[in-house]
Write a structure and sequence with these properties.
Largest sheet of chain A: 7 strands, mixed
Order of helices and strands of chain A: EEEEEEEEEEE
Distance between the termini of chain A: 37 Å
Number of strands of chain B: 12
Structural class of chain A: mainly beta
Helix content of chain A: under 10%
Oligomer: heterodimer
Number of helices of chain A: 0
Number of strands of chain A: 11
Helix content of chain B: under 10%
Order of helices and strands of chain B: EEEEEEEEEEEE
Shape of chain B: globular
Radius of gyration of chain A: 13 Å
Radius of gyration of chain B: 14 Å
Shape of chain A: globular
């Protein structure tokens, strides 16, 4: 079956602009996660959705970052007034098995803020 | 304090040999899960293996096995019969609590398989 998909695969923007990153989880997966991976580091948790609601947004770095999942499937991560430090790979994951919590990741969106 | 520590920034292994990638973790929870992911140069995170804190047997998935030593808080990944395609970055991660959601990742170990 289809895995997690993310669009765009690459995004170049200018400092101060607004960007949206999209994630389409594996069909039937109710849990969805966003992570950010800076160069040479492991992914860092941003936000977790169970269904339509953000169950844990403790990883969002500041109020410029916001994410939605209005119908419990596709999610959009929104970044306002982008800064050069926002440049990273943004990874989305989804999971079905709540006991193990195995998360399956998408290919990521590489964001470059000039 | 680091939750997940991977002390080997890089490792080399000869093709067809076995290699162990180290991972130690820190948690006060009794229930937790440990995961290993592979990240090739393409960037996608590929799930390899899972070990639950209450699992008595070490997890195995094909050529991957997890050497789980609970008292030492270590969860080392063993790759047997290395292949050139195993060259990648490997991340150890932990989910805390019985219904924990987020994964906490280590810094990763880059593995290079030599022919």
């Amino acid at each position: 079956g289809a895995g997690v998909s993310q669009t765009p695969s690459n995004k170049v923007t200018e400092k101060g602009k607004y960007v949206e990153l999209r994630c389409d989880p594996i069909s039937g997966h109710t849990a969805l996660y966003w992570y950010r991976q800076s160069l040479g580091q492991g992914p860092e948790f941003l936000i977790y959705f169970q269904g339509t609601g953000a169950a844990d947004d403790s990883g969002l770095p500041n109020d410029r970052f916001f994410a939605v999942r209005p119908e419990g499937s596709v999610s959009t991560l929104k970044i306002q007034r982008t800064e050069r430090g926002d440049s990273a790979v943004y990874l989305c994951a989804s999971s079905l098995d709540r006991q193990r919590g195995t998360q399956y990741f998408g290919p990521g969106t590489r964001l470059l803020v000039l | 304090a680091q939750k997940i520590t991977q002390t080997q920034p890089g490792m080399f292994v000869q093709e067809k040999e076995a290699v162990t990638l180290d991972c130690t973790y820190d948690t006060s929870d009794q229930s937790y899960g440990l995961f290993w992911y592979k990240q090739p140069s393409s960037g996608e995170m590929i799930f390899l293996i899972y070990q639950g804190s209450y699992d008595e047997q070490n997890a195995t998935e094909g050529r991957y096995s997890l050497n789980f030593q609970k008292a030492r808080k270590s969860a080392n990944l063993v790759i047997s019969a290395s292949q050139l395609g195993d060259s990648a970055m490997y991340f150890c991660a932990m989910r805390e609590g019985p219904w924990g959601n987020k994964l906490v990742f280590g810094a990763g170990t880059i593995l290079r398989v030599k022919s």
